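User: Predict the structure for this protein chain, please.
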Amino acid sequence: MNCFVKLFFLFCISFSFAQLPEGFVYAKEVIPDLDVDLRYYSSNNFVGKPVEGYLTNKLILTKQAALALKQVQEELQSQNLCLLVFDGYRPQQAVNHFMSWARDLNDTVNKARFYPDVAKQHLFKEEYIATRSGHSKGSTVDLTIIDGNTGQALDMGSNFDFFGEASWVNYSHITEKQKANRKLLQTVMLKHGFRNYPKEWWHFTLRKEPFPATYFDFPVK
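Assistant: Here is the predicted structure, written as structure tokens:
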């Protein structure tokens, strides 16, 4: 093998195994038994189709966020419970896709399931859709708790990505069991360094996130 061919071969190998930006990790490298269901990689989301920038069902987070999430998982496992993560790092191109979708007022295919009580033209005003997302900084996660034996998600009183008051953390018109499940999630996440977004029981951001002012756009792949 001559020098040129050898160099080209090595370049191809290194390209194939391109690394994430410094400071980011694949969450399963830190938490091998973590359950991941990236909703924006599938059609099971409010857009109704895979979202731009999601090329695989691999959860990416900053290393600090992944290590903190590992502590959450370990504590829950002591109660025979586990985490199920719906989203983590989100490229800006995905956020742009959300914005385009929100401006298309004729596309209301999933309105009954995800935003039955909110007019689509009000999703920006009511802060369900934004031009920037904390997810793009790499230390925000959307998640819930599942039973360690059955894999069944605990009943939180509303579905993930439901746009409405039923998803607000302190929403009162749910059962005592649903309130207890929300409190468990809040308690364990806050204990290990995350803070919650009050309008979404599933949404948490690492308090000391390493990139507080940087919005990334590399794809999830």
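The beta strands are 24-26, 35-36, 60-62, 81-87, 140-147, 194-196, 203-206.
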